[in-house]
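Thread: quick sanity check before group meeting

JM: Hey all, I'm pulling together slides for Thursday and realized we never actually wrote out the predicted structure for the chain we discussed last week. Dropping the sequence here so it's in one place. If anyone has concerns about the input, flag it before I start.
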Amino acid sequence: MDSECKDTNVYGMRIASPVSVRVRQFEVSSVIQKPESSACIGGKKTRCSVCGRIHCGWYDQRVRRVRDLSCGDTRIYLELDVRRVECKGCGAVKQERLNWLADYPFYTKRFAFFVGRRCRAMTIKDVAQETHLDWWTVRRLEMEYMREQLRRVGSPAPKVIGIDEISIHKGHTYRIVVSDLIRRRPIWFGGEDRSEASMDAFYAWLGTKKSRRIRLAVMDMWKAFRTSTLKPEHAPQAAILFDKFHILRHLGEALDKVRKAEYARLMGKDRRFIKGQKYTLLSRRENLTTQGRRSLKLLLNANQRLSTAYILKEEFEQLWSYNREGWARRFFENWRDSLKWQRLKPYEHFAKMIDRHWDGIAAYCKPENKVALGFVEGLNNKIRVIQRRSYGLRNEEYLRLKVLTCMLPPI
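JM (edit): ok, ran it. Output follows.
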């Protein structure tokens, strides 16, 4: 049947002249309506979808059916006349541009955004089953949604950055993730590996002007990141701060080496106190369960060397509580002196590593460098959750969009 729309279309916009609306009954949809297109405004001008050039008149027009937001359990489709224009700028016949249609032109933009919002909390397969769409269609609409998110937040101009690498495949295949620690969101994902050349690619993307505004760079002790950051053409003015959690991970590895050495030294029943207690030693006491605290107390009473190593590990975290570098250095010297005659070789190697990288650790003592250091590791955990939920991602562009938008608000 045919009806006439005189005041507004389905998007709430006023219509300059009456527009014919065709409503048909389908098996899974109840309404197909013809909304206003850009060619209907004034009935003359048509915009090319490729170059954006405006033309008077059109080449031809065709009827297209596009899917819109559902009404309850009923799927809604819109039927509209889409014009084609013989574009002089492109030198070919192109379709007109309709701003409310998605880049995948068989769906409205608001329907594509609905699919993208659902994919933030659900897998593509589940969203495809809910919306009765193909798996590839859902992923294509979600990628359009994520690109729109990035477009709306604009170009980043960070002052404090966090640098880390993630593994995307087996065989030491890495990509670099750079985050804005003030706005608490990732801003760059790329590179071919975790080399200096890959880090240079970030600063080339950011630009010289914005790179000069970076005052602090938080990273692990990987030499390539520090070398690239301090290049004269990048951010030589930035202070380098080594991530606390990477340093404590090295200390935890040293403690585990002591545990393994003690297990190998002991024989028979004496081993029962150490066996299976790796994570009991590596965890903080306040994070242990009641049974874990009992096991820890029994272990520390049974082995003096492990007890000393555990106490030294707990004390070392005090290093980040000082507001002056001199006090922090005095604490570290006293902590290193306490290793004498303890026969803790892994701890001695750890102390030498801290001494070599002292400037990047002592930078945290300055008040302007007191930033949240857990964001980078938290982001890494979030990326691993995304990878596990998808059982691995083969499309690297899709992974890049998922990483860059995981901290952005929905639209």
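AS: nice. The first strand starts at residue 2 and ends at 5. The two ends are 36 Å apart (CA to CA).
JM: adding both to the slides.
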